[in-house]
Design a protein that fits this description.
92 residues; alpha+beta; Alpha-Beta Plaits; 5-stranded mixed β-sheet; 2 helices; 5 strands; Acylphosphatase
């Protein structure tokens, strides 16, 4: 299966609810690399890279997020696979 990256922007109540932590857990459990970070406007941004099926699984999870989150919208776009990423990181 092809490897892809998806760049996502998540809006709603997604900061201060462990969204980045749980996104990293989901990504690592699915063998993804990339990163997740909070944005100054209150949104969360993520780059998910790996096998397409696993990326799509975590991308779908972003629409719900962790229990305390209230996701309003997820906008995402596909990108070329970035093989320089070695792990999934939370960026501060």
């Amino acid at each position: 299966m092809a490897k892809i990256c998806v760049h996502a922007r998540i809006t709603g109540r997604v900061q201060g609810v462990w969204f980045r932590h749980f996104t990293r857990e989901q990504a690592e459990a699915n063998g993804l690399t990339g990163w997740v970070r909070n944005l100054p406007d209150g949104c969360v941004e993520a780059l998910l890279c790996g096998e397409e099926k696993a990326v799509r699984h975590v991308e779908a999870w972003l629409n719900t997020g962790p229990e305390l989150a209230n996701v309003a919208d997820v906008s995402s776009d596909d990108q070329s696979f970035d093989d320089s990423l070695q792990a999934f990181e939370i960026i501060d």
